[in-house]
Design goal:
heterodimer; B: alpha+beta
């Protein structure tokens, strides 16, 4: 077992608290998101026949995963890294967001999105708050033809403010030097 | 946006392809719009010198977080408001870069009946202009039976 694997092992199983997104599901944010993903489905706009069974206008299915943004009054990582040539701009890294501790042994490692397994139970409605609770499900060091990489698996449960399950995700983050 | 005719479990057969969706050609404007919408500023999607020289990438990458939206959309649009996309799974095996057009596809691999609705398993992926697969995946959707009950909402997973 490598020193890196040893150093990462204590993180496996660590669980965040229940984090509450700083903003609720806002109509304008939904519109910008839907336009950015080029999916202008009417269920995201006004109440209509097609979203009646969801209780009215809803967010795109994956929007809750992107609701956990920097609240007002917290440190601005872009300004804090204005003189850091290695800062990659990733301000909501899966390794540090959603209340999970940063994987200190991987500080300075690049990050790529490796994929996800997602289960959907219901959509978030306009005006709802969203919570998430996450854990490090597994962390594995692998050797590849391009050198060692670390696979970080993060399990998350997203719920409405009233506690209803919206979705479960298992994301794989690829970290490499 | 594509809301087709209502789809029922009986309309689906193993081996059938679902309607593809096409995105692109993807420009830096597409990627900047997505970065702004999700408020994340990973430089590998808009800072070409950083992507190539610092992170040793082949160019500006199309965000995995954006591609996963397309995987979801191809299923959501196919099943329509009467169906439900229960599971989606995918791996980002190859990079897509600015300039590519992406074609998102799906093919039915299995159909199963439960007491109240049907389940359909699919193979999914994203092909670029050169028919190279970047995002192999799978999905499971629930569809109502023709003349049957509407699907439960919130969705309740069938017992194994």
């Amino acid at each position: 077992m490598s020193e890196l694997t040893d150093a990462l092992k204590p993180y496996i199983g660590q669980r965040s608290g229940i984090e509450v997104a700083c903003d609720s599901v806002e109509t304008g944010a939904v519109r910008r998101y839907a336009q950015a993903i080029m999916d202008e489905d009417p269920i995201y706009g006004q109440a209509c026949d097609h979203n009646a069974r969801y209780g009215g206008p809803v967010a795109p299915p994956l929007l809750p995963t992107h609701l956990f943004r920097r609240p007002l009054g917290t440190e601005d990582p872009i300004q804090a890294n204005a003189h850091n040539p290695d800062f990659d701009g990733f301000v909501a890294a899966p390794t540090s967001a959603n209340g999970l501790p940063e994987l200190m042994p991987l500080r300075g490692y690049a990050l790529l999105n490796g994929g996800s397994d997602i289960e959907f139970f219901r959509y978030a409605r306009h005006g709802e708050t969203v919570t998430v609770q996450s854990s490090y499900a597994d962390i594995q060091e692998k050797q590849t033809s391009k050198g060692p990489i670390v696979l970080v698996m993060i399990e998350s449960e997203y719920r409405s403010g009233s506690g209803e399950l919206l979705m479960k995700t298992t994301r794989t983050a690829i970290r490499r030097k | 946006m594509a809301i087709g005719p209502e789809l029922f479990f009986e309309d689906v057969e193993v081996g059938m392809s679902i309607p593809t969706i096409e995105k692109g050609p993807m420009s830096t404007a597409h990627l900047m719009r997505w970065s702004a919408a999700m408020e994340n500023w990973h430089k590998i999607h808009y800072d070409k010198p950083f992507a190539i020289e610092h992170d040793k990438l082949p160019g500006l990458l199309i965000n995995g977080s954006l591609k996963q939206q397309f995987m979801m959309q191809v299923l959501k649009d196919w099943v329509g408001p009467g169906g439900w996309v229960w599971k989606v799974s995918f791996q980002f095996r190859a990079m897509n870069v600015v300039g590519e057009t992406m074609r998102v596809w799906g093919k039915v691999t299995d159909v199963r009946r439960t007491a109240d609705f049907g389940l359909v398993d699919l193979e999914l992926g994203i092909l670029n202009d050169h028919d190279k697969e970047s995002t192999p995946g799978s999905g499971t959707v629930a569809l109502p039976y023709r003349g049957g009950k509407p699907l439960p909402y919130p969705f309740v997973a069938p017992s194994a």
